[in-house]
Design goal:
Radius of gyration: 19 Å
Strand order of the largest sheet: 3-2-1-6-7
CATH class: Alpha Beta
Shape: elongated
Order of helices and strands: HEHHHHHEHEEEHEHEH
CATH architecture: 3-Layer(aba) Sandwich
Distance between the termini: 28 Å
Structural class: alpha/beta
Helix content: 25-40%
Length: 260
Amino acid sequence: MSFNAVPPASLVSSLRTARRIVVLSGAGMSAESGIPTFRDQGSGLWSRFDPQELATPGAFRRDPETVWAWYEWRRRSACHAVPHAGHFALTALAARPEVEALTVVTQNVDDLHERAGTKAVLHLHGSLFAPRCFDCGRAYGGLADSSGQELDSAAIRLTPPRCATCHGLIRPGVVWFGEGLPEAVWLEARRTIERADLVLVVGTSGLVYPAADLPDAARRKGCAVSVINPDASSTSSRGSMDWQIQAGVGLPALVSKLDT
């Protein structure tokens, strides 16, 4: 499928005058770097597992070794992925002198935004790189670095580490089904929306709640919102600033327009 690589004029105009920008990024942004979307995680070694059945507190209680191995496999996959041009375009946009603040509010659990140089990143659904104790909640810093050399890629079961404080099992630092979003992160995301004058919804339908409430809240206060997503059916009503294009192509093209 081919896309129009020329951004909508209304979007370029809004970006030129924007001073406080919020980017809501989703699975499509990371998928362009080769990280499978959550529901596509069951591939290869993990093809016989349902991702939704592994991503619950109950699954971890029943079989922590399998759940930990799956998330370590996902972390290793994220370590090997690299940021694409769209990630770096956001970093370049944040560095422009006219931009007072750019905050990425992401539904992704990888660290691609950070590795591309973005400083202000809020992880709504947690992070593969922020494990914590299942019992006491204390953060755990004992994972290997991004080379991930300690992980046997063929392991279907791995014993989770233990918390040095309470000896509880260490769990992945992500939001599982049945759990709420991290309150402090959610409140900060809402605050950034209240201050924003432009919201870019990138690589996500923007229809899944509670994350979908962020662009809705922006619209309610009169803030400009643009959906940048190659899936034309991902929005219920397309606006003049919405753009059907991949982030890795569209975001660099959009930022380059600021100098023309």
